[in-house]
Amino acid sequence: MTALLEEPPRVVELRTSGTPRRGVLSRAVAKLGNGTVQVVLALVALFWMMPVFGLFVASLRDERANSASGWWTIFTKPAELTMDNYAALLSDSTVLQSLLNTVYIAVPSTVLVVVLAALAAYGLSWIEFPGRVWLTTAVVALLVMPVQVALIPVAKLFGALGLFGTIAGVVTFHVAFGLPFAVFLLRNFFTGIPRDLIEAARMDGATEWVIFRRVILPVAKPAIASLAIFQFLWVWNDLLVALVFADQDSAPITVALRGQLRQFGTNIDLLASGAFLSMIVPLAVFLAFQRYFVQGVLAGSTK
After folding, report:
1. What CATH class has 88-298?
2. In sequence order, which residues have a C-beta less than 8 Å from that of residue 129 and are 6 or more positions away?
3. 15-40 pLDDT, tens digit each
């Protein structure tokens, strides 16, 4: 009877929060609202693009107008805009040849780095062979070597091989120093591919080349596109390597613009139009592969 009258034991409920605590930035964004955040981001983007817009306006003004006032005065004097700068630039055979040289240097350097790095990264990721770990460590160690250290030794080597002052020499240097980062980047992506996918292809009798071509490459398109964009932009905008290893006939657009700056220190109209013209191609490449670039940057963030 006494046991029946006793109070039943209390059940203690442990309540846990279903959502983690948000940071200060996320709480501020929630209070401001999406509309305000979008306006702020649009203003930041406009401020970030202002130098590009100023360069474009300066390329459409003559030398006298650029020397007399800033580019922002174009809003009150739109009649100063002219295409004569681009007409004079494109009629210069030196500038046209430098643009072609830039294409001859950037395209092979990008293609060779992507192809060789993809093959090497697949071998270091999924093919067992003696010394694979040490070879991977050596590739990673090459990332810390600065370009400036190898300029003089490579220049002597190119002089002995007859590559100094040629487009082939510039391409070879870019490929050699672009491979360590490319192999490191693609290997990190390839190792994230499920092993079961590779083993299933091997059990079906697929060779390593078939696995690389039909399994790895379709999955790795975002990473390969990101690598191609990085490599192309680096080579296209390079000045140091071209100054050392290219001569007058094989100089890219960056060296040509530097020569114009040294020859005509106040010729802003020519320099602005040349700089903006050299910027169009990388911008077009980035916009064309933007979707793959974003996927490659975000790859592995949800794994």
Report:
1. mainly alpha
2. 123
3. 444 555 555 556 555 655 567 778 88
